[in-house]
């Protein structure tokens, strides 16, 4: 009883998270209950094992990388704030936000930031470039074990060929942004 | 004595029988007709006709072919006159041609063409190819992503339209001045339900030429396809009710139930046929020539089977095409795929052209009781109800959508609600009462108005409003990877949030598909091939073909290697020994010479077989080019990686001929 009470969400905290991430009150409370249900150790933070316990995530090819994205550099635990901050990237864009003037700093869930998030999932060594190897690794995860290295290699080469505009044989973030996702991007 | 033996001669058509009866008459009454008899028998003994004229024998196919030929020549003709075809959409021109032809025929006072757009012909022969073409090539991603919106427009929108139009027309008819007091409520509602449905043929014809962005296209088009269920139910409902005369609550409830039965039943039948078709295609590797027929026939059977039970044939056809397509395409040869594509396009093009021409012809051939009030009010009310419906539904839908529909989008959706031949044919099927002709006139006017006025003005309006046009996406491998990556990413995030959204279910469906369905419906190792790989193979093939066609294949240096290429070469990749390298240009010369000469002899010696497709020199070029390209890339990679020296050595040495086993 005692340890649970200390982790209950306070109103000020909700307000802060709201300001930082833009989620609504109800969304925050719902996600908080999800957070606590995942938090088996009941210590107010999530570890990697907590995430891995989600069954669908285990079979998701990008599962590990997504989990890693929640944890800041070198840490093994993520608290609710960090959890919300990462999830904020995927919050749907509200209508009223579109009219805000652009002098305010770009909200977390803008298209660019979403793509940056995705880019970081490719770019493990954080050198701001997706090298051929990093691409190969992601492809290998998505495609499974039946494909030979050669074929995968030629796919990777072709991908880089298509996207690479400055000829450095890797994909920078600017080149990454230019790949248009298929029309009708509902869930952005 | 002779007179009393008159045999009664039946008056009968046909020369032979009268001749026979006359001959019998001769035998019994010899005297007076002797001279006649003489001429008759000399008539018999005429010389053998070398050239004779017998048109009745081929009348029907001749007329049909003539019509189709006319339609296609018109289609050609429009594109020779460039100015006209830019302003006026093809459908309008075809209707005008139909009007002209109808007028000409009417001048000769024949009534044959009217029967041509009779409903049976239309629904059984003209409509299915268009719907199959649309359903088979339906872009699944935008369709499923917007399915909710499309359903709301199709179902709720059409219902709203039907009732609004029906009730308003009833109200108008009650006004004394209009003198249409005999029209009862149910007839008006029936009329409303016929004229309210957006027509896929007209939408396709017009939207195809204006190239708007995919979202709007799929919204309007999807709506026109899915509202068929609603139209079928309403039509049957009101027809039944007008027979019975009274409506009870139970009837209304049954109506709602029947809607679900009609739509879901149609989809179910289509899906079943689709699965059977996919399963059949698994075994066609030995008779590639008949593969396309399976696709066509199973789909057509799906349509007909649904029509038997008065279910929605259109939805059945679409479900069949959609279900069948991914599995069939994995199984059939590349040639069959091209055949299917081109046959579908060809048939649907012919059908569409014929439909519009016959629409024009039928207009002329009908008597048209004209009632200004009724017709004009119908047109106005149709437009008003469409706008109201779209605007209010969008307001509600936008609360649930993430990418909202802007005012511009709403305008295009409302403006693109064209009526077409389906409404006309349904009107034709109406029971013959006094109102039928009036209704038909009104329906035709609405159709003409939407196709001509709205069809012609939509293009400049699109330009004016600067609506987003269709992106010319060349389908790069980059996009495919990106899309899949994002799918996985978003599914993962959804799972973390515990939110069972769009991606979650799509992912579940994909897993089910991969684990169970693909194993049954796809031959051999292709069943385990990931989507990315098949996409990549397809693209490589396309590129290789482009290179061969442009003749630049010779520029690539010739090195050989085995790489998998399933659909081009059913036989094993050519096994070639490693030859000592000579200068590349010399090598090319030798190859060209050999290939040119060897192939000629080979083809002469092969026996003709109707059941097998012979390997084409073109295709051999294609595979050749593909091989070469891959090797070029490999070489480049080797030279660039030799410095980095990470993995260059191991996989070069793997280049043996027998490596094919690992490559699916």
Topology diagram in text:
The complex is a heterodimer of chains A (188) and B (664).
Chain A: H1 2-6, H2 11-21, H3 25-38, E1 45-46, H4 48-52, H5 55-59, H6 63-70, E2 78-79, H7 80-87, H8 95-98, H9 111-122, E3 129-130, H10 132-143, H11 149-163, E4 171-172, H12 173-178
Antiparallel strand pairs in A: 1-2, 3-4
Helix pairs in contact in A: 10-11
Chain B: H1 15-28, H2 34-44, H3 59-80, H4 82-87, H5 90-107, H6 112-116, H7 119-136, H8 140-145, H9 147-174, H10 185-195, H11 200-210, H12 214-244, H13 249-281, H14 291-308, H15 313-331, H16 334-365, H17 372-397, H18 407-415, H19 421-428, H20 434-465, H21 477-497, H22 502-521, H23 531-550, H24 584-605, H25 617-644, H26 648-653
Task: Kindly describe this structure.
The complex is a heterodimer of chains A (188) and B (664). The longest helix of chain A is centred in the last third of the chain and has 15 residues. Chain A has a domain of 58 residues: Recoverin, domain 1, CATH 1.10.238. The N terminus and C terminus of chain A are likely disordered. Chain A is built from twelve helices and four strands; from the N terminus they run αααβαααβαααβααβα. Chain A is mainly alpha-helical and 188 residues long. Chain B has a domain of 358 residues: Na+/H+ antiporter like fold (Up-down Bundle), CATH 1.20.1530. Chain B is built from 26 helices and no strands. Chain A: One of its GO terms (cellular component) is plasma membrane. Chain A: Belongs to the calcineurin regulatory subunit family. CHP subfamily. Chain A: GO terms for molecular function: calcium ion binding. Chain A: It comes from Sphaeramia orbicularis (orbiculate cardinalfish).
